Amino acid sequence: MGPTNPPDRACSGSTPSGLSLSCAGAPTPDSASEVGQCPSPLFPRSLAACSSSYKAPRGPMAVMRGASLHSLPDSALLAVLRLLPPLERRVVVPLVCKRFAALAAASTDLWQQVQLSIPVDFRQSVSLPDLYAWFVRREGLVRSLHVSIGTDDAWAPLLALLGVAGRGLEHLRIAGDGQSCAVAGCTAPWLALTPNLRSLELDDVCDHSIGEALWPAGLTRLELSYCGEEGLYSIPTHVGELTQLHTLVLNCAMFDNELTLDRLATCTNLQRLDLSNCCLSRVPRVLAKLPRLASLTLNENDALGAGGAALEPLATLTQLQVLEMRECGLRSVPSSLSQLTNLRSLLLGYNSMTQRPCIPSGPYLAGLRVLAMSDASGFQDDTPFEVLLEPLEPAVGLEVLRINRCMGLQLTIEDVGRLLAGKPRFRKLEFTADMLSDPRDLEELRRRHPQVNFKAVD
Questions:
Q1: DSSP state of 39
Q2: Which residues of the chain have pLDDT under 70?
Q3: What is the pTM of this model?
Q4: Could you point out which of 111, 181, 299, 342 has its C-alpha 20 to 30 Å from the C-alpha of 167?
């Protein structure tokens, strides 16, 4: 038997204290649990009892109303169980009834995704031999592994698990709980245990030395966040060798010198780049050398809005479809976007839109589908919606507009009518409820424009 929660605790919805061995002779198969999380309400305690004591209805409606999960063939039932999150599949499903337990034990693809937590007190709360045995019995079956660790001591059992399951993994995420989980100076030689990885996420579990790591050659997605107290100082050395890499996420780094980003020029297949909270003072010019870049995220780089020159390199990103610049000190939508006709989503929340017009004109507006300016400041009390109406007239393809919590902005039924005119695809408007002078106006808007989802938040 492998590690599992005792049935009485898992069924009651109480928080498990760790990975433990199931009782001998229990009808539940071995399953790993996740510390600190409760079972899903999708399988409450009463479900097991309902399943075992189910009585078929009588009368003419028996055929229609008598159907239950037990009437499904195994293949269909497994298809339903695969829709559950990994934790529920592992911890709760085996406790429902004997049939569910047998399916959970016999199925192979039901365990392709595994979530595991190794807490600070794992030596007392986790049965490591049983945990290893659980993975040994499923060697080659686990494709995705998410691990949360609470201390750097957890690396020893984690590496032992990777020695068993690492070769079969395609996705690996390791997340720590602060710098106490990081091993100083480590360049991750353990990556040799995971040669077939396609996606790797390391969050708060390493310092800047990870920049010298040798990555699995087939990586298509790499995410490095909170690498030490100040983060990475440059783009990882060997990232240019990843010829299949299409997504790169580097968060909370110290890229205050543009020269530290030059290695990005070798990532010519990159399609999505996230440089949030990286101390950027200007949009890196090296991005112009990424011909396939379609999505760019630059959140929390508040120095970017200091001057127009800092944003000029955006004009070179002709294939860009999604731009996200929340909390970047912007005073308007960057005018350097005006010629980017492939732009579809523009997410600019938490900026101070004091410049007028705050939405510059240009060909980019015709193709824009989503414009988000939530939590933007810079609108004085009782600012009429006219400040947005006229600039958005050319945005004939607009589908979603988010202006919730833009304090001071006022909205009327007539304003909404003008906004929707000439925009046949428009389907959602998010705003703050007090932008309307009369609460009854919201119902009137829904009556006049039933095709639009009006989401009024407090």
A1: P
A2: 1-67, 87
A3: 0.81
A4: 181
